[in-house]
Amino acid sequence: MEKDWERLDYNHLDFKSIKNIFKKFLPQKEVSDFSILSGGLRNTNYLISFYNTTEKLVLRIYTEENKEPLKEYNLFKLLKDKIPFPEFYYSGFWKDINRHFAITQYLEGITLDKCLNDFPDKSAEELGEFLNIIHSNKYTEIGLLNEKLEITEHIFSPDKTLESFIIPGLENTIIKKDLVMI
Q: Do 102 and 69 meet the contact criterion of CB atoms below 8 Å apart?
């Protein structure tokens, strides 16, 4: 779905801005260096290094229109004891740059998007187990979640059949034309 998206814009921060955010929100950490992590499609992610430790953290700057930070944090709280998930150290709004942000643990390893290109069987099994855990959280309806993980925008009700959503799409003349060509 997002595999072939192109990154359009980064939220570029200078060293002073990054030091200031850590001074304000995690004052015990003194930033020594940073670099932009590749891969974020909507958000800009920075890898942050510190003096006197080998620990590294990720500073995630969300896009201006992104309403997902609180939802992401609540999903972390829901799933953190069930699947490997980077620890959240801070999540909030930074008025100096007018953006939501999060500070999370940096985990070494292969990211899911890179793994999908050369998907070993063991990874497929682990991913299947993680998806099973995620899907074990039950909802009475199907829809989009808000920041409190409550369904706000209903997509359809489980008592309706999938057919009731496919048939109207098939009546679209463009789709019919494509189906005939297949």
A: yes
Token pair, residue 84, equals 């490997």
Return d(Cα 5, Cα 19) in angstroms, integer: 31
In 3D space, the residue among 142, 136, 181 whose CA is nearest the CA of residue 160 turns out to be 142
Phi, psi of 31 (to 5 degrees): -65, 130
- CA 55/CA 49 separation, integer angstroms: 7
Q: What is the pLDDT of residues 37-59, one digit of tens each?
A: 876 667 889 999 999 999 999 99
Q: How far apart are CA 174 and CA 164, in angstroms?
A: 19
Q: Which residues of 34-72 are buried (b: 16+ CB within 10 A; e: fewer)?
A: beebeebeebbbbebebeeeeeebbbbbbbeeeebbbbb
Neighbouring-strand partners of residue 35 = 47
Top pLDDT among 1 and 67 is at 67
Token pair 């814009």 is at which residue? 9
- Dihedral sign, CA of 142, 144, 76, 120? positive
Q: What is the separation of C-alpha 133 from the centre of its chain, rounded to a whole number of angstroms?
A: 17
